[in-house]
Amino acid sequence: MAPENKLTHNACLKVKPEPHRPRKTLSDGLGLKLKVSCTSKLWRFDYTHEGKQKSLSLGKFPEVSLAEARELRDKARRQLRDGRDPVRARQDEKRKAPENTFRELSAQWLSRGEWSQGHLRTIEQRLDKHILPYVGDMPVSEVTTPLVREVLKRIEDRGTIETAHRVKYIIGQICRFAASQGLSDNDPTTLLRDALKVSQARTFPSITDPIKLGAMLRAIDVYTGSFVVKTALQLLPMVFVRSGELRGARWDEIDLGQSMWAIPAHRMKLPKNGPHKVPLSVQAVQLLRELHPLTGSEVLVFPSTVSKGKSISENTLNAALVRLDISRDEHVPHGFRHTASTLLNEQRYDSDLIEIQLHHGTEGIRGIYNKAEYIELRKKMMQEWSDYLEKLKTGAKVLQLPKFQSTQ
After folding, report:
1. 191: three-class secondary structure by DSSP
2. Peptide bond into 98 cis (omega under 30)
3. Are 210 and 343 in contact (CB under 8 A)?
């Protein structure tokens, strides 16, 4: 069999990419070829490994010269001689490059996410304290299950079980991101599903007894402090968003005519679930209309009188409740979410609707309602909830919500 012709530098220069012409292939021997398309000239090394035909890209001519392409081909042939797949060997080298450390990949992962400022700070703190000191400078492909287990055990041994679960989730997210970039083979946290102790769910103090809830709502209605703070406390039970989401509300998010509040994704704790629409009851709209003459000329619905450009603080709401003789052990602003969830679930409201109104996620509801249907159902639920709260404030013995009729 005649040997393949060797290429020369001039021959590589002479052949030109030609639009609308068939592709050409020039061979240099031993698997090295120059593939000439209508737009470029690319070096390839064709080889067989474990009975499979494969091809390794070696770069573009003339950026990679003929001599350099031959060196790369010879390196690949030595890898084959040693039983290694050149394509896999390149992937391994790429994974171990300095720019592919766990620290670098975590920074890339963070930069691509949509986080609220508070949630971003929490993630960064967990990375800096619990993760990066131990695996930050390692190639992400070398972060194994045993290593992750050691990281989590340090946290678990301090008794902070919930933090250990959160850290495991962060590591898993970063490793899955790395795998999507071809820099890792798997998620090392997968095998640790049952390795951690079960964490006790964090609960915020909340009043769930209807009679006590009515008494608290009456106390809020006669609050004599700031009108802005009073309105925030009156509105919070009706919408059961997170207190930070209410405090950061902007007038341009609220459509009083349509009775709808659209919170953008970047202000939510779970931005990946997208923007959150909050149907506003008649009572909620009335509260906002009464507040608008006072703060409507500003960006924020509940601006601080102390820090210009900022909203009222969580401590402000906490302090207001304390002034009303509602201790922090009994109820806190965030507790209104638990209050609503508990009472609505007790009254057999659709749990999927409650969860999506709490913005815990949308997976469960997607299989039941389309977008238009669940908005309408949530409007109905939120109005009935506000009506129920209003009756509790009057002292009426209304311990039952209206029987909710789903349109399933």
Report:
1. helix
2. no
3. yes
Q: Does 392 score more than 70 pLDDT?
A: yes
Spell out the residues 6+ positions from residue 121 whose beta carbon is closer than 8 angstroms to its own.
none
Q: Which residues contact 228 (CB under 8 A, 6 or more apart)?
A: 291, 294, 295, 302, 303, 305, 312
Query: pLDDT tens for residues 347-367?
Result: 878 877 888 888 775 444 444
Give percent of the chain with pLDDT exceeding 90: 43
Closest CA to 228 of 272, 291, 179, 150: 291
Q: How far apart are CA 226 and CA 232, in angstroms?
A: 10
For the segment 100-116, what is each residue's pLDDT rounded down to a tens digit?
889 988 999 998 876 76
Helix runs in 2-65, H state only: 9-14
A 10 A CB-CB count for 404 gives: 16
Locate tokens 């394509």: which residue?
87
The confidence score (pLDDT) of residue 95 equals: 58
Distance CA 328, CA 326 (A): 7
- Look at residue 255 in the predicted model and tell me its pLDDT: 96
CB atoms closer than 10 angstroms to residue 83: 8
What percent of the chain lies above the pLDDT cut of 70?
A: 86
**Number of Cα atoms under 13 Å in the Cβ half of residue 182:** 8
CA proximity to 9, closest of 41, 47, 55, 57: 41
β-sheet with 41-49: strand ranges across: 24-29, 32-36, 41-49, 52-60
Contact predicate 135/102, CB 8 Å:
yes
Strands 260-263 and 41-49 come out as unpaired
| 3-class secondary-structure state, position 354 | helix
What distance in Å separates the CA atoms of residue 211 and residue 214, rounded to the nearest whole number? 5
For residues 170 and 189, give the distance between their C-alpha atoms in angstroms, rounded to a whole number. 10
**pTM surpassing 0.70?**
no
Closest CA to 245 of 225, 216, 214, 273: 273
| Token pair of 346 as six digits | 């007790």
Q: Which helix (H) or strand (E) holds 323?
A: helix 314-323
pLDDT reported for residue 379: 93
Mean confidence (pLDDT) of the chain: 85
pLDDT in tens, 84-104: 898 888 776 665 656 688 998
Alpha-carbon radius of gyration of the chain: 31
Q: How many whole angstroms separate alpha carbon 361 and alpha carbon 352?
A: 9
